[in-house]
Amino acid sequence: MAASTSAPAIARPRAIGWARLPAWLRYTVIAALLVVVWHLYAVHKGPLVMATPWQSVQALWDGWRDGNLAHATWTTLRLLFEGIAIGIVVAAVLVAFATLSKFGEDLLAFLTAVLNPLPGVAILPLAMLIFGLNETALRFVLANATIWPLAIAVSTGFKTTNQTLVAVGRNIGLRRVRIITDILAPAALPYAVAGLKTAWAFGWRTIIAAELVFGVAGAKGGLGNYINDARLNLLPPKMFAALLVIAVLGVVFEALFGLLERRTVVRWGMKTS
Amino acid sequence: MSEQIAERSSAVGNAVVSVDRVRLGYWVGRDFHTAVADASFDVRPRERMILIGPSGCGKSTLLKAIAGFVAPVEGTIAVAGRRTLEPGPDRAVVFQEFDQLLPWRTVLDNVAYPLRVNGRSRRDAAAAAREYLELTNLGRAADRYPHQLSGGMKQRVAIARALALQPTVLLMDEPFGALDAITRQRLQVELNRIVAQTDVTLLFVTHSIEEALVLGDRIVVLGNAPSTVLEVVDVRDLGGPESVEYSQMRGRLRGLLAVDQEEEEVEDHGGLD
Asked: What's the complex ipTM?
C-alpha cells in the first residue's frame, strides 16, 4: 500500500508497457522498425528502383567525400538564403510602407491576397522566360515564395501590437520610423519568427521543386537536380542520400528556429514555450 | 466656481500646466461625443494635482490631451508656457496598463532606453536608470524582464522610467487602478515619498476619493459628461483620515461626485474605469 500513500491527489493513469519507456528509446524503436520495413521493401523492389538503408548511407558518405553532394547541398542552401534574404528585405519595406500610408496598406492587402495563395513554383516558367535559365530566376521564385507569408505575419504582428506600447513610444519622443523599428518590430517578433518558419518551409519546398524542373531543362546544381540526376542514371542510393540530407536539414532548421524563439520571444515572456 | 476663478487668476504667472476653456471629445463613427465640455485649471510648480470624476467624465481624455495624444476641440493647453501639440518626454506618462513596459528589454533597460532616445550616452543613461530604480526600491530587479515582475513592481518600473526623464510634469493615468487594495495602498505611500524626494510636479487621474485625498495637494473635481470643473479644492492641510476636516472633505467630495458610500467602497477595491 506504499504506492497509494505517495500518489498525488489527481493520479495520472499508471504508465504501462510502451509509455513507461524513455522518449529517446521509443523513437529509436520506431526508427529501427521503419529501417527494417524500408530494407525489406527495397530488397523486394530490386536495386534499380529502391536503395536499402545501408546503400543510402554509403551513398551519402561517398557523395559527401567526393564533394558532389556537399556541393549540391551548399548550392541549394545558398540560393535559399539569398532568396529568403531578398524576401525579408522586400517584406520589411512593404510592411513599413503599409504602416506609414493608407495606400501602402491597401497595396499590401491586395498583393498578399493575390500572390500568397499562388504556389511558389507556379511562376517558375515565367521567371525562366524573364531571367533565363539561371540562378536569378530561382532567387526570384524564392523571394516570391517567402515575401508574402512574411509580410502577412509581420503586418498582423504590427496591427495587434498593444497600443499602450505605441503610446509609450510616442511619449518618450519616438516618431514614425523609429516607432516602427523600436516598438512595432520587436513587439511583432513572435509573429515575425512564425512568418519566418512558414517562409522557410515554403522556400525549401519551392527550391527543391524548382531545381527538379531546372534539372529537366538542362541547368545544373542543387539537391533537386542531384535527385533528378540520380533518377536518370538509375542510381537510387544517390537519390535516397539526397532525400536524407533534405530531411536532416529540415529537422536542423526546425531546431534552430526553436532555439531562436527560446533566446528571444520565450525569454521575454512574449510567447510560451 | 468662484473659488476656481480665484485659483486661476492667482496662478497665471507660474503655472506648469495651464488648461484654459478646453473642450474635448471623441468620434464614434460620424458623431462627436463631448466628454469634457469646458475645463480650466492650473497646476503650479511642485504641486500634486489630482483629477477626479465619475466614470466617462473625460478625466483620462483630459490627461491624454495634456500629454499630446488628443487635441482639444476648443481652448488651449500650455505646459511651461508652451502650447503642446506632440507627445513628448517633458510630459512623461505612467499608464494604467501593466504591459506598458517593453517586454524585450530588462527592467534597467526599460528605464535607460528612453534616456538614450533623448540623447544621453549609454553609460550615462544606465547610471541614471540605476539611480531611479533605487529610488523606487527596484535595484535588485534591474536585470529581470517585465514578465517576471508582479503588477505592483511593473507600475513602479513605469514610475521610475517616467521620473528618470525628469519631466516638467509627471502625468499618471490611474496607475494603481488595476492593483489589489493592499498593493495599491503601499504604492500610494511610496509615491508620496518619491514625489517628496524628487520635487516633481504631478498630475494624477483617479476615480477614488481616498486616493485623491492621500496623494493630492489640490483636487480638480469634474462632473458627469459632458463635464465641467465642479470645483478645485485644496486638501493640503486636512490632517490624517481620523481628523474632522478629512471626513468633512471626503463627505463633500462624495456629494460632488454623487457617489453613495457603497459604490465608492467597490471602486476603491480595484474597479476599472
From this structure: 0.88
